[in-house]
Queue: 2 jobs
Job 1
Amino acid sequence: MSPLVTPSNVQRSDRHQNRARMLISCPDRPGIVAAVSQFLSKHGANIVQSDQYTMDPEGGLFFIRLEFDLPELEQQLASLKRDFAETTAREFAMEWRVTQASRKQRLAVFVSKEDHCLLELLWQWKSGDLYADIAMVVSNHPDMRDTVESFGIPYHHVPVTPETKKEAEAKQLELVRDVDTVVLARYMQIISPTFIAQFPNRIINIHHSFLPAFVGGKPYAQAYDRGVKIIGATAHYVTEELDGGPIIEQDVQRVSHRDNVEALKRIGRHIERIVLARAVAWHAEDRILTHQNKTVVFN
Amino acid sequence: MSPLVTPSNVQRSDRHQNRARMLISCPDRPGIVAAVSQFLSKHGANIVQSDQYTMDPEGGLFFIRLEFDLPELEQQLASLKRDFAETTAREFAMEWRVTQASRKQRLAVFVSKEDHCLLELLWQWKSGDLYADIAMVVSNHPDMRDTVESFGIPYHHVPVTPETKKEAEAKQLELVRDVDTVVLARYMQIISPTFIAQFPNRIINIHHSFLPAFVGGKPYAQAYDRGVKIIGATAHYVTEELDGGPIIEQDVQRVSHRDNVEALKRIGRHIERIVLARAVAWHAEDRILTHQNKTVVFN
Amino acid sequence: MSPLVTPSNVQRSDRHQNRARMLISCPDRPGIVAAVSQFLSKHGANIVQSDQYTMDPEGGLFFIRLEFDLPELEQQLASLKRDFAETTAREFAMEWRVTQASRKQRLAVFVSKEDHCLLELLWQWKSGDLYADIAMVVSNHPDMRDTVESFGIPYHHVPVTPETKKEAEAKQLELVRDVDTVVLARYMQIISPTFIAQFPNRIINIHHSFLPAFVGGKPYAQAYDRGVKIIGATAHYVTEELDGGPIIEQDVQRVSHRDNVEALKRIGRHIERIVLARAVAWHAEDRILTHQNKTVVFN
Amino acid sequence: MSPLVTPSNVQRSDRHQNRARMLISCPDRPGIVAAVSQFLSKHGANIVQSDQYTMDPEGGLFFIRLEFDLPELEQQLASLKRDFAETTAREFAMEWRVTQASRKQRLAVFVSKEDHCLLELLWQWKSGDLYADIAMVVSNHPDMRDTVESFGIPYHHVPVTPETKKEAEAKQLELVRDVDTVVLARYMQIISPTFIAQFPNRIINIHHSFLPAFVGGKPYAQAYDRGVKIIGATAHYVTEELDGGPIIEQDVQRVSHRDNVEALKRIGRHIERIVLARAVAWHAEDRILTHQNKTVVFN
């Protein structure tokens, strides 16, 4: 079926052809910023954005995210990366990566029955607010097929039962083998350690509570029982600890005794979809560094 | 030392001489509102404010808070209460109470070394925003004496050590025997079950986290380790379960990786004092009903 | 084209067959609550929710919204209304209305080119969160036809030019003659006094600023120029004064110097759609009373 | 009278002896970051924090705030500044300044009758949260003398009447001649253009509304009349246009129809004092650059 929608072609200045992003982490010591900016300057690059953070100023870790423009980036990038690896990166024992801003990450979105988070991503993608390539939607249910295909996006129904868990996962891993990031948009199946190992800090989940409160199942019912006056949602990278991975973003909304569990779910949906969309956008813009089960988000 | 400050005499309309507050809870059934308003009407009272809430509409509990004006309230109140007890309250198996709005609750504020919550209460009391009588401040340290006495409020230094816990508590209970409500304004000692039993739902504590996350000690350090993007504070009634009692009020503030533990404490202080002050004010205005470890706040 | 989506059939308890809503405003005086609840009680109705508000307690206006259950409401309602009109309403000089909670309001949504507010309404309608009947979408552009029709909702393209304004309006008024409420979901044409007169307090507009700041055109550019640190959106009833009608709901989001006008629009879209959706839902649930260019929202 | 309180000696790492802050603005062009970091590196300085912002990436203005450590800063600073002026600053046509982080700004706080903003500043100063020197409090009323002097801070009562405006201002200017920044903490007198000219972008005012809404007098009454659902406060630099200067910080709080003007004032006070305190702290930490009646806050 021909798509009802096509992504908009927003040409924002921070995504143009010669824009690159560099993320670095290394042991803190004097001279890092000077060394990096000198390196880039020598290679004809102009730094247009820079955010840094030092964890524990008395000798801890240093993180920096730079955006720079380099004429003919496409052709120059490989040699720039080679030079950097052999000089500055080695000298400062850096972990680092450089990506082209114009390159869209390929995302696979996993969904079960609740569609609000998926819809938010689809519409943000369509409007150009989410600068990424939604390569596919994978679901253990068939319900969302028509909607997803109306966006011109492939839909894969992969049923999961306790007996077929392993085969289902194998099928999923095959589907996402060329994907950069997996987004669990209220996908209710547990992701296995095998799967997680293939996508370290590249699986983003939305948990429908304000972590670390109410981990696990039925968080809105848990919130209702505790009588909290504020509920929230949390987007995080998936690790082997259920709902325990590095938190990327959270947001909240006030509630009162008048809100029963159904109302909490209804209010919570709006928070969930906004929080997940922010997290996915920041991840797609290479704004997140992870360290010791926490994130540094340069936004 | 003569006080530097005296409480302001704000005569707000909802605290005048003939204003009363009635709180009722009973099993839900048809006719409650009609019965109560007819009763009050027959006794010459005019209902000026009414808030109700039915927990579980299919046969659950009914809660209502009314404010009414009754000419010559002072003289009429006793007989009105007697009549209500013998008629409507009995008929509907009500738990209820009626208080005079002009009557100020007597509060005892307990504090340790952190003074921000106490100061907020003192200044709100002085400005008339907190309509209550701060009868005394009790502390296990001597630090706040001068400040508290400059407000014209008695200060009692009751040191507490592991060996003297029992005697200290006995002294405290003696001091607060005529007090309506105890406010723990970052008071760091554990309140014993004996003490709690004397003040059921009448001890308000401020816990410096967004419950149920980070119960117990050093919640800001816990929050820092978890890498949350939002911190908060919670005011609750004290029960035997540490930080587990009914939540009265919560609020939050956004933080980022830039905020170390000291910064979290600094940001958190503002939330703590505002949240505690709100909770104490609502309690002083008889706006809170408690049921099944949760509160219904009519505000 | 057969719809991709059908509205869910959420049977929430506050919308069942025997539930009615009553809104009253009248000069404040003793006995109103008693009179109304006695009346309802005599007619066999059970009050399940009650919210009141007195503007200016020293002799001002009294407002109350009640929800009550009446067995066989459908058959009883007409006579109950007749009796109320002749007795209590007359005695207290009340303005009042009673509606059946199960009856869905018929809405017409007007849209121009920005689709986010419309989409939010469509998805909330589909999920059952918005309990109303979206009878049609009217637009001065053809762009949204496919999307709207995929929801099974009629789409009317009514172009508007300076020369054809009058005919266009005549056509619109004809289309909406059986509609309860008109929702302007980022509809960019000015509504004429004639149109407004047909729908007093029944046209809800979303203005993309935090009123009364930045009325009129290009509010995000205005906000950017003023260098505000917070932007917002406002839902209000349309009156003859542009962006001057009674405010129903507002919300805000923090921004910084990093956000240029395009970013402000992007951030603002999320606020606009949530604020409009809340306002429309409250209006559909008969939660809003208007007085002196302000709203009382019983929520 | 000996002070009841003395400021705490918090030695935060970002205020130690060898820490300096550099703020720069200049026309944007390639190489700025490299040039500045090379300069600092050559002079033995280590950049520990860097925030930049380019207004209008296609050839606009560039802003950067750096924090760097330089051994023996006290002795080295003068020559570093001289060198910078003659080389990099000249080359890039920079406007710039460098200050020592350990140096406290001298503040004069002006107050009228409302004391909440002043008290917030005094307590934040006392706790060490506000790293500045409150050199004096100036007021057109005598009311706050005892409180201010209890903090060990000089209090100057300078009455102002229409006839004595000029002399009063002359007296104030004489008092504040050695002061860095004037903070108007709900000071209700208009500041003259003469005064403003002496303190360009160095007078911080708190206006009790969410600008640009409700400029001028009685903003809470204005807000009440407009029926807004959210109120706020704004801290800004004072310019000749009343309430029109560059906005530094704003915050808001939700209100409802239940809140009359007195309630709005009460709720508003908490926002005012927090917003003013944040703005003053950022200013004291040299985090604010101003351009075209807007601020860039590096926080």
Job 2
Amino acid sequence: MKKANQLRKIEIIRDYTQYAAGSVLIKWGNTWVLCTASVEEKVPPFLRDTGRGWVTAEYSMLPSCTPQRKDRDIKKLKMDARSTEIQRLIGRALRASIDMAKLGERQITVDCDVLQADGGTRCASITGGMVAIELAVQRLLKNKVISENPIVHRVAAVSVGVCDGVPTLDLDYVHDSSAEVDLNVIMTDDGKFVELQGCAEHKPFGDEHLMAMISLAKKGLKQIFKLTR
Amino acid sequence: MKKANQLRKIEIIRDYTQYAAGSVLIKWGNTWVLCTASVEEKVPPFLRDTGRGWVTAEYSMLPSCTPQRKDRDIKKLKMDARSTEIQRLIGRALRASIDMAKLGERQITVDCDVLQADGGTRCASITGGMVAIELAVQRLLKNKVISENPIVHRVAAVSVGVCDGVPTLDLDYVHDSSAEVDLNVIMTDDGKFVELQGCAEHKPFGDEHLMAMISLAKKGLKQIFKLTR
Amino acid sequence: MKKANQLRKIEIIRDYTQYAAGSVLIKWGNTWVLCTASVEEKVPPFLRDTGRGWVTAEYSMLPSCTPQRKDRDIKKLKMDARSTEIQRLIGRALRASIDMAKLGERQITVDCDVLQADGGTRCASITGGMVAIELAVQRLLKNKVISENPIVHRVAAVSVGVCDGVPTLDLDYVHDSSAEVDLNVIMTDDGKFVELQGCAEHKPFGDEHLMAMISLAKKGLKQIFKLTR
Amino acid sequence: MKKANQLRKIEIIRDYTQYAAGSVLIKWGNTWVLCTASVEEKVPPFLRDTGRGWVTAEYSMLPSCTPQRKDRDIKKLKMDARSTEIQRLIGRALRASIDMAKLGERQITVDCDVLQADGGTRCASITGGMVAIELAVQRLLKNKVISENPIVHRVAAVSVGVCDGVPTLDLDYVHDSSAEVDLNVIMTDDGKFVELQGCAEHKPFGDEHLMAMISLAKKGLKQIFKLTR
Amino acid sequence: MKKANQLRKIEIIRDYTQYAAGSVLIKWGNTWVLCTASVEEKVPPFLRDTGRGWVTAEYSMLPSCTPQRKDRDIKKLKMDARSTEIQRLIGRALRASIDMAKLGERQITVDCDVLQADGGTRCASITGGMVAIELAVQRLLKNKVISENPIVHRVAAVSVGVCDGVPTLDLDYVHDSSAEVDLNVIMTDDGKFVELQGCAEHKPFGDEHLMAMISLAKKGLKQIFKLTR
Amino acid sequence: MKKANQLRKIEIIRDYTQYAAGSVLIKWGNTWVLCTASVEEKVPPFLRDTGRGWVTAEYSMLPSCTPQRKDRDIKKLKMDARSTEIQRLIGRALRASIDMAKLGERQITVDCDVLQADGGTRCASITGGMVAIELAVQRLLKNKVISENPIVHRVAAVSVGVCDGVPTLDLDYVHDSSAEVDLNVIMTDDGKFVELQGCAEHKPFGDEHLMAMISLAKKGLKQIFKLTR
């Protein structure tokens, strides 16, 4: 069993499938997410004729990715609310990595499909999605669709929490469910914050815990950036 | 015009409408949100026969609340994604204020309908929603539906950001749109964090800005808790 | 308590919110409806390139506007059938007030959001919506978007019914639920009919009751037109 | 061509299809509606354990019933708003014919499917739907499901209007589109009003036109009740 | 009662309704389907500017077409899955009859609305739909919208099955429900296969039964093509 | 390149993911489908209290499984029509393999999620789905949830077609798109037919081609059953 200040084992399989511009299977402990980056020569209406591009993300769990089978969204005719929240977070995080003027008027859609879920799927999605974008960008550069690399910094994400009073890095499902606090930290590879999203539904926390968690997250992210380079 | 370390003018009209158990119109600058708390003697399936209650929130913008009219969700048959994210945040924040065993097997639904939007609607909704819950709880106590006050601490929220490099309290729409960083801080009245949600889509930020923003938020929340008492 | 031939107290607050072209809060007894008129420079497909404008209405009840909380339409993915019927009535009534050629190729959308419901919400919506249109038209004239006033006559509405055999003006919720007959009368300020919609689900009625109800409605509408002028 | 005070030719084919309890094809000029009455041993939740029954109606136009093909509702995932309004009218009208205590705790659903539309489909639906209910009730009596006839009076409907200033009975599509006023009159076979629904979107009307239209409608309905007996 | 190698009685009423370009009521035993062919001067996006046309089909059961009333699709907001499968089959079958270049850039939509269902509705729809297309094509030729007949061969369909070990032609509902195998055979009038769709959910079958069923189907289709000529 | 009478390379990875009762990744050339079998202790309403079980299938393509990204169903709020048709086929085919009385009152849901699509996804889904069911059944037997193996025979599927006049086994996407005929053959391991679904949208076919295709399919299925044993 891993220690409170350790990451789970992370494996990143590049070019997993072949049709998307970028395709990555990230295996983060028992959490497996297929992250693909598809490029389309169109942008949302508010960006038309601006010369600027867009990055968006979609997140979905396969029905059998959890021990208890989950119905597909289409059965209920409703996008799952948790998935909506998560894919908005992934999109914001990944957009922060790109210079939209250099990308030009095209859209990268990052699809994060969870094959197996054991906690930390949003962090795995952001981390794997960044690698998928890098693969797609390399292809765009190689095919001379764009002339300059639009990636301004790479981003990655990790969760931290407080379990039984102990600040803990990289929560799996069992830890996540019982944690008093759950904080997702998304940073750039030069150590700046892109997004913080932390929730203490069960027990509000003070400054010391915030500081301890941020410190743990920074440590974990350093290791993760080594893996994704 | 207000200074970077000041709050906008906040007015809280209690018992605004008469049919909900708790009803509050919060006017936070030009942001007006009608927050009502309705009590129903039923809980979601996962809580049945547990003796525990639930608090949930719904957030919606009236079509004419912004300068550009917005179509209703029902016209598109889709819950707005931003509203989904916001109402999940409001729900988590308000749940943190309640001891569910003391509430007993009933549900409080807090409806936050935005009559006019000028930035900070999610913070106004949480702050106003807390007051609506308090009014509803008073009614439950008075009618002897419950015997003990289930409110363990009161919560409130404020947004802080970095505008042109300056940490700024309580962003209105113009500030929010141009801010480099936007952080929503939700705390209890005894100074603990309930949720942090901050995003730097435009410019990642460092530790000093994080510290400065949190400090401003704490200061603002102290004033807000005076108003809601 | 009001007499059978009296109106409830009606208060009309103009310019209630600030972003819509016209905004009115109408408080008709305990029925409160926020009526806003928004102007958009587009028309439905069947009117494109005709030089003619359009007026449409949307009607919705806030979840907490009645003693028993009502789910939002989006939760059921269906526009409420009663709301559909009502907003079609409001739209037809308000369109009758406008010369569409003078309005020009633009659309006025009147949103009627019920903050509190105690019977007569459709009549309050039509009456308040007319005032919101007038405010919007004044703004269009002042901004020289249009050069001639397109309002050909003003409309207003009132409900009448038969309660325990007695023709009764302006039914509140308790009366409406128990009335044998319920007739909504929409007229112009020069005393012509725009729409009649009456239903005797519980007890069919004869000519005398029809005449008595119409006479009462005319009397009530005269008073209402004084208020809305 | 028919005169202004005449009805179109109306043909009522009973027992048209064989699976519904009551089935009627009504051919009213070129307007053809298949009206079926199905009986189910269940009632809406608000009537459970009351011993009382319910009558409801559904109205739908087949895609090819008009010269211009109309998309099916399911394609747009939305119940057509005009159909919603019409089926609520049909339901109210038909409910007025039944003593719900005598019907007992069961529901009659009247489906009105328009095979061909040339104006007056809602009146044809109510008139044909009443006959379908009568057939269904006869079957219930014959099978001894109920012991007493729950039909308290029979209802029928006809449209009247004002065309070029002339009060006109039974408007077909061409007349309906150009009429200044369009009034649907639903009455019982003993000459009482069940519902009036009239609209003067194009030209408000005075008392004399109202009286003239009602008088024409009464005359037409007398003839119709002869046909449906 | 019909023998295992006989067809039910089939009646084809041409020009049943008047607004669609082609309209056919096919009564195949107790299965009645209204098949209409509507022509629109537009094609799906993938065919724009190709000079080629398209044929598509929609299939729907009226609520009262079966002994047990069926809810409309719009009530569940979902296209019925069985109807989806059937209308795709009808569309493929009918497309096989048309030379899309001769049809030109226009679409024929064949609506198959089942008024009464007693087994074999998909075969009745294909067979009746073909006749409706022929009527529509005659009208297009007569109106000189097209100059050459685009029908390359006529198609028809029949079901065959194995009931209690006996290969059987033209299954009605009772037979269909109990058949071990159910095979729909769609052929051209010159004896070629267009589609085979057979299922042995209850008892897998061997080559001999396949051959016997195909032979029966060919015999039946010869008779059907005589009727549709 | 493979010959017309050869299969593509097929690889079956058992126990690919860990939470479903049975999980198989089938790689059939460049077509990859994740097939999982989940067991739930409930059955559809029509089977309650019958002691019989049910098998159902869901089929979905991941957005990035094809060279051109495909929108998710939930974005359009509609189940894809082709997917609906395919999952009904998969369900029927797999149900044919099971003795529902031996399965007992529980449901196996087979989810077929296409990670990469290069033709033949429905055949890969049936073939892989059968293996997933076998794994799930082994687990049920091992855990003594059931006492007897409910699998009566194993099923598998392969596509055959006619390409440029040549009967061809196992069509990939390029062949499938250009084939004159496309026939899916589903058989049991003892050589009986479970379902035939063949379509000649482009060129109707005669008996010889039917026989040649069936013969090829039988040969291919023999090889496939060796792989799945």
